[in-house]
Each structure stands twice: as C-alpha cells, then as structure tokens.
C-alpha cells in the first residue's frame, strides 16, 4: 500500500549477508495472529527449498499471489487481508535465522455501503442520512496500530459521492463525502424544499 492509502504491487526478493543452505518464505496473517494450522498466525508458504544461496546476492521470487496452505495442503490465492512475508533460513554455519518484513495489504473487494434509498423531509427541515460502511480498512487500522505501531486512517483512503434527485429524476445535488473512522456516518443537507428525494451513493 502506498503512503496515500492506495494499493500498490508487491515484489518478493531475498538477499543474505551470509551464505545459506535453506530458505522458507511464509505468509503471516496480521488479522489473525493465532490462526493457521499451527495457531501461530502462519497460514502457508510461498517458497521453501534447499539451495546454495550466496552471500550478498539478491534472489528475486516471481510471486503471483498464491501460496501453499498449511491447513488444506492446497495452493490457493491469498484472500483479502493484512499480511507479512517472513523468511526463515539455515546458514552454512548451521544457525537458523529469521526475519520479519513490514506488513502489506491485499484488497480486491470494494466497500459495502448501506444507506436509505429515499429521503423524506419537510421544508426548512434538515435532512440527515445515517449510513454505514463495511470495508477491510476498518479492520486493518487497529491491527496495524497494535501489531506494528503504525497509524492508518481509513477515512484518508475511502471516499464516495452522493447524488440527490427528485422522483422525476431531476438532479438536485451532488457532493463528495469522506467516511468516518468508525465506519458509520451522518450526512446533513440544509436548504432543500419539502420533497421525496432519491439518493445514490457512488
């Protein structure tokens, strides 16, 4: 994920200061630290093999987003969630080394927004719309804070537009809105005359 909250691509590579004879790259589930087959948060691996890995050499791994699941023993596509790519190696000195990486986000599902389809109000009365948003970002934010001391504001990455129309499809108002951190928002309109309105969130 980029600094502005938009999604980016992920490249996986290995580089060792010392020569290694074995490397295992695993996927850690940051949203379920006690999940996985071994109940340690690791849901599977994307690479594991014995090889003479040279020191100070970079090894790029062509990763397509799939992993070998420890529970099902099947290769499957990684689902939406918060993860780290962690590597365990064995050196030519016989010692075991382990390194954790920074977390990354997998997100392919759009936010689910719920709100009334119609607004009914009288003249000079404020119209308030109460809605809710279900999205992975709201689960990721507390996990990043507790697990990695990273501050992430979902409102900075989620936005939408509402369109208000009369029943005859006459355009009334269009405006951008930001989602609040608690995944529930109240949107206020003033100055609209008594009417029955249609609301569309985009």
Q: Topology of this protein?
A:
Blueprint: E1 12-15, E2 20-29, E3 42-53, E4 58-61, E5 66-69, E6 75-77, E7 81-91, E8 96-99, E9 104-106, E10 112-114, E11 118-121, E12 127-134, H1 136-148, E13 159-166, E14 171-178, E15 184-189, E16 195-201
Antiparallel strand pairs: 1-4, 2-3, 2-7, 3-5, 5-6, 7-8, 7-9, 10-12, 11-16, 12-15, 13-14, 13-16
List keywords for this structure.
7-stranded antiparallel sheet; single chain; 4-stranded antiparallel sheet; mainly beta; 202 residues; 16 strands; 49% strand
What does this structure look like?
With 202 residues, this protein is mainly beta. 6% of the residues lie in helices and 49% in strands. It contains one helix and 16 strands. The longest helix has 13 residues. The C terminus is likely disordered.
């Amino acid at each position: 994920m980029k600094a502005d909250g938009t999604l980016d691509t992920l490249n996986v590579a290995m580089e060792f200061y010392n020569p290694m004879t074995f490397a295992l790259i695993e996927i850690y589930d940051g949203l379920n630290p006690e999940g996985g087959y071994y109940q340690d948060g690791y849901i599977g691996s994307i690479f594991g093999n014995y090889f003479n890995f040279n020191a100070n050499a970079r090894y790029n791994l062509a990763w397509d987003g799939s992993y070998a699941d420890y529970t099902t023993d099947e290769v499957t596509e990684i689902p939406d969630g918060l993860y780290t790519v962690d590597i365990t190696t064995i050196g030519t000195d016989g010692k075991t080394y382990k390194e954790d990486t920074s977390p990354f986000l997998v997100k392919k599902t759009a936010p689910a927004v719920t709100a009334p389809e119609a607004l009914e109000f009288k003249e000079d009365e404020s119209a308030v719309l109460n809605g809710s948003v279900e999205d992975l970002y709201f689960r990721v934010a507390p996990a990043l804070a507790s697990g990695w001391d990273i501050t992430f504001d979902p409102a900075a990455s989620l936005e939408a537009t509402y369109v208000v129309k009369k029943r005859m499809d006459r355009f009334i108002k269009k405006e951008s809105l930001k989602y609040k951190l608690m995944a529930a928002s109240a949107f206020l309109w003033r100055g609209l005359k008594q009417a029955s309105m249609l609301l569309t969130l985009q």
